Amino acid sequence: MAIGIYFATTTGKTEDIAERLHGLLSGANPPKDLSDLEDLTEFSSLDGIICGIPTWNTGADSERSGTVWDSMLEDIGALNLNGKKVAIFGLGDSSTYTENFCDAMEELHSYFKKAGATMVGYVDKSSYTFDESKSVVGEKFCGLAIDEDSESDMTDDRLSKWCNQLKDEIPGLS
Ligand SMILES: Cc1cc2nc3c(=O)[nH]c(=O)nc-3n(C[C@H](O)[C@H](O)[C@H](O)COP(=O)(O)O)c2cc1C
Question: Which residues, other chains included, contact 12 with Cβ-Cβ below 8 Å and sequence gap of 6+?
Answer without folding.
Answer: none
